[in-house]
Automatic annotation (TrEMBL):
Annotated active site: 88
Domain Thioredoxin: 39-202
Organism: Phaeodactylum tricornutum (strain CCAP 1055/1)
Recorded superkingdom: Eukaryota
GO molecular function, one term: thioredoxin peroxidase activity
Keywords tagged on the record: Antioxidant, Oxidoreductase, Peroxidase
SUPFAM superfamilies: Thioredoxin-like
Entry protein name: Thioredoxin domain-containing protein
GO cellular component term, pick one: cytoplasm
Gene Ontology terms: biological process: cell redox homeostasis; cellular response to oxidative stress; hydrogen peroxide catabolic process
Length: 204
């Protein structure tokens, strides 16, 4: 007989498979793309809880739908290929950490760091970076559903990272993409996206 926790894990796996098989047709992200009509969810970065009193490890309990993430707020989201890797840790994230207050003062409600990774690795990475969770939220896409649905997935087999996402950033206001970049210069990305936020605000 399957124990309760095993049954829940099996149910979660079946749900992931069902979502994957019924996922939206792959689309690209451009200015004007609606991000809240998707059924896809991301996972909150979190530690592995050793008891129910500490919290839940179940995917359903930690899911954040794109509607929940983007509806009725302005979000600056940057995507990195993998936690704990050199460029992501030393060049991409630091710009957002340094400019976090500027983003918030410019009218951004939430800054999100996204990666195709498990939520536990993302939590460990955030702690290693001494991230302020009140300013930058870390989100995981463990099954690469978001990346694949929006054509952001990429293979990094040559450096032993497997299937991940490209490096990208975007501004989403009330579910609508106002700026989107495939990032070539990780160091300058935060500065570029902040300029996009200010320009968008000036034209409202």
């Amino acid at each position: 007989m399957m124990h309760g926790s095993q049954a829940l894990l099996q149910a979660a796996k079946r749900k992931v498979s069902a979502i994957a098989s019924n996922a939206i047709t792959m689309r690209s992200i451009t200015v004007g793309t609606d991000m809240i009509s998707s059924v896809i969810s991301l996972q909150k970065a979190r530690p592995w809880y050793m008891s129910d009193a500490e919290g839940s490890n179940m995917a359903d309990d930690n899911a954040v739908t794109l509607k929940d993430l983007f509806k009725k707020q302005t979000v600056a989201l940057f995507g990195v290929p993998a936690p704990f890797t050199g460029t992501c840790s030393n060049e991409h994230y630091p710009g957002y950490k340094a400019l976090a207050d500027d983003f918030l003062q410019a009218g951004v409600d939430r800054i999100v760091c996204y990666s195709v990774a498990d939520p536990y690795a993302m939590d460990g990475w955030a702690k290693a970076l001494k991230n302020d969770a009140e300013k930058i939220t870390f989100m995981a896409d463990p099954d690469s559903l978001f990346a694949k649905a929006y054509g952001l997935d990429a293979a990094y087999d040559a450096v032993s990272l497997g299937q991940r996402s490209i490096r990208f950033s975007m501004v989403v206001a009330d579910g609508k993409v106002e700026a989107f970049h495939k990032v070539d210069d990780a160091v300058k990305d935060a500065e570029t996206l902040l300029a996009d936020v200010k320009e968008w605000k000036d034209h409202q």
